[in-house]
Structures are given as C-alpha cells and as structure tokens.
Amino acid sequence: MGKARVEAWEVSEEFWKRVAPLIPQRAPRPVQREYVRKPGGGRKPKDSRLVFEAIVYVLRTGCQWKALPRERFGSASAVHKRFLEWERGGFFLALWQAGLAEYDDLEGIAWRWQSVEGAMMKAPLAQEATGPNPMDRGKKNGSKRHLLVDGRGVPLSLIVTGANRHDVSQLEAVLDAIMVKRPTPPQRRHKHLCADAGYTGASALQTIEAHGYIPHVKGRGQEVTEIRLLPHKRARRWIVEVAHSWFNRFRKLLVRYEKLERSFLVLNHLAAAIIAVRKVPLDINIIYG
Predict the structure, then answer these.
(1) Insertion element IS402-like domain: from which residue to which, for each copy (predicted)?
(2) Rounded alpha-carbon distances, angstroms, from residue 63 to 57, 109, 110
(3) N or C end of the chain: which has fewer CB within 10 A?
(4) Is residue 241 in a domain?
(5) What is the domain range of residue 125?
C-alpha cells in the first residue's frame, strides 16, 4: 500500500516544535469575589496546536472562517477569537522573524542580490488598505502586496496597501520594513537590488542608492536582450515574481476577503514564515504541502 496522502494544512512535529514556544500565553481570568466558578465549570481552552492547524487550513484553502470543518476543528468562532488574540500578541510576526533567523543560521540569507516588486489582488470586502484596481479598469477595490526578497525568493520585507498605490511611492517603506538587519557588506558591490521598469525614475533610484544598493531597474524585454548578448549574465529579477506565486498558493491571499488590514497582513506574515522555514536545509518535512 502507498503512503496516505498528507494534506497541505497539516503541521509536522518538527514545525510545531518551532511554533509552540512563540504562542502567546493567555492571561488568567480574574476571580470575582461575589462569584466563584465551580471546579470543572466552563469549557476547556481549545488546544493551541489545533487552533494553529485550523488557521493554516484557512490560509491554505481560502475558506471563510465560519466554514471551518466543525468535525475537525470544533467551533470556528473560538478559532477566530484565538487568531485575533495571537494577532494582537504579535505571534505571526514573531514566527516570521524566527523562521528568517533559522534560515539565516543554517543556510544564510542570500543578501547580495535582492528583488522588489508589488502584486495586486482583488479585495471585494476589504475596508482598509484598498483602492481602485488599475488591473480591473479601476472599478473595484483592490489591495497590493509589496515584497522584498533575497536571492532565493525568501521574503525579507512585506507591506500591504491599496492597489492604486504606485510601487515607487512605497519603495522606501518596503526597504525600511526589512525584518532582519544585515551587517554592513565589506564592499558596495555585495548589495544589489533588482526591480522592473515600474521603478524607473530619479526618485526610485535615489531611494535605492540611499539604502546602499546598486540599482538594477530593467524591463523584462531589456533583461532578456542583455542575457542573449551577454550569456554570462543571469536573470535575477524573476525570483520576486516566483515569491509572489508562492504567496498565491495560499488561497486566502489570492483574493482578499479580510476586512481589516491588520488581519490580512498577519496572514501574509504566516505565509512568509512558512516559506522561510521551508528553505531551511534539513532532511525533514517542516510543513506539508
């Protein structure tokens, strides 16, 4: 008999060992003097691992929170309540930072060639960080994920804005929001930033150079032509496009249904954490799927 299929949202023991220490501790409820709860009264708190797996399930499948399979995860409202608690506690950001730290320790962040780009998605129900979507004739709300990645596509920085915010206007914010601080490289040629033609212009080049990068701002056609003429050169900007496609495999991020910016942002943080941890060079399955 072949191996039983493992679903994309199932969390391995190895990954859970990395997650568990970062789970925010719930504050004990204050005991009121006029009423003391009977021993054993009330519901037992939902298991943290089950909650985390439910959140990954939502992220992977794109289902509504209230559509979580009750037979597997129990009360959907209890899961969403814990999600909001963990969001306020900074858990998802801490998980991304921990994933990057482990990736840096065991593989080494590929600092030399970084890439930046924005990608739009529809946001029909969102109430924050939205704007007319230029890709949808400006008729409907959309959001944009601005992403900075290392040379292997691992996310280093991420912000969310309205779809109508130009990439250049958010470039400084993306470069300032990097999750880990790199030691100053010994030579300037050890720090390059690749971007597409949307970042053309004096303002973008000034921002890139002010952050210590050598700019490589080129359209796709220009890059292809240069590689054809100079075979020793490598195409590098495409890696950020691949990274955006990795995010879109988490179907909750493909179309934004989260109303609040902070909830959508932390789901992106969780996806970034999973991407970073899966790049750790260990002979184990960190997370399936």
Answers:
(1) 12-95
(2) 8, 33, 34
(3) N
(4) yes
(5) 110-260
